[in-house]
């Protein structure tokens, strides 16, 4: 038995049942049976085991916690937790990111609307179609007059 | 009968404030104790404990229930506590994790040689001991405080400690060893006080 054995086994002292492999547990037991120094170390560790928890919980129990929960609830506010209102999955995600979703899909939806209007609108509804850009807006020239397509950020919410 | 944690979580997730309030009341002291053990400062521990519950509420929608609610709660508390310590501390030399022969030298012998009883004198000793333990804990480096608190207060296994702290099981074992040795050394002065007290007690009988 050498000091190197002690260096190897000392960190294993204090392990709970099942935390060491069978081989480790057997080797530790064999070492402890022969090593007085490690026996003393194990005894000292055992004497202080659990005292940290006891001291900290005693300190927590001695403190007045009356305002704690109210302070937490004030910080939380009246809102439900995130994810509670809009559910999960794609719809939940869209609900939580509606601005981004709108900005991405609005141009495509506008184009689709124009396509539907042009192709399926009744006779006389569209005499000609001219699309021009004026700044960030797109203007449709229809037989009923100009129709301005608003950019996504100007859509009423 | 008290609702179990998961039932309260489900109700809190649905927006029932009373359910979340019940969860806070149920765990507030232990969360505070964990934070206090790691950050040392009572006011900072109070803030960390509150922030923990705010974060938990914010994340309830993402809580999958794969682990116990308390595991999730204390994981958040641990990380917030460590973050708080790291924000506050100045750069200083970190202790190594490996165990050397010099680490096996004796330290703190004689402390707590007898278990504390329940009579008034021993109760006074117990209170004094609590204060000394806290003082001793405060002298440990953050990583040693943290692992000792999680091991003793939360009762985490080596595997759970490894997962929680992102270190290997071998590192967990050696870090715990160092933490215990440092606690023994930090309590050495108190051991002398206890030794005198015990000798006085023996003289009286």
Summarize the model shown.
The complex is a heterodimer of chains A (157) and B (205). Chain A has 157 residues and is mostly helical.
Show the helix and strand layout:
The complex is a heterodimer of chains A (157) and B (205).
Chain A: H1 3-9, H2 22-34, H3 36-48, H4 51-62, H5 66-76, H6 89-96, H7 98-120, E1 130-134, E2 137-142, E3 145-149
Chain B: H1 5-13, H2 17-39, H3 42-59, H4 69-88, H5 120-138, H6 142-152, H7 158-165, H8 169-186, H9 188-204
Structural class of chain A: mainly alpha
Q: How many runs of DSSP E, i.e. beta strands of chain B?
A: 0
Sheet having the most strands of chain A = 3 strands, antiparallel
CATH topology name of the largest domain in chain B: Arc Repressor Mutant, subunit A
The helix-strand sequence of chain A is HHHHHHHEEE
What profile does the largest beta sheet of chain B have? Answer: none
Helical percentage of chain A: 55-70%
Low-pLDDT parts of chain A are 85-93, 124-136, 153-157
Keywords:
heterodimer; A: 157 residues; mainly alpha; 3-stranded antiparallel beta sheet; 7 helices; B: 205 residues; Rna Polymerase Sigma Factor, Chain: A; Arc Repressor Mutant, subunit A; disordered C terminus
Structure report:
The complex is a heterodimer of chains A (157) and B (205). Chain A has 2 domains: 1-78; 89-154, no CATH class. In chain A, strand 1 (130-134) and strand 2 form a beta hairpin. Chain A is built from 7 helices and 3 strands, in the order αααααααβββ. Chain A has a 3-stranded antiparallel beta sheet with strand order 1-2-3, with no helix packed on it. Chain A has helices at 3-9, 22-34, 36-48, 51-62, 66-76, 89-96, 98-120; strands spanning 130-134, 137-142, 145-149. The longest helix of chain B has 23 residues, at 17-39. With 205 residues, chain B is mostly helical. Helices cover 70% and strands 0% of the residues of chain B. The chains are: A mainly alpha (157), B mainly alpha (205). The interface between A and B is large, with 49 and 63 residues.
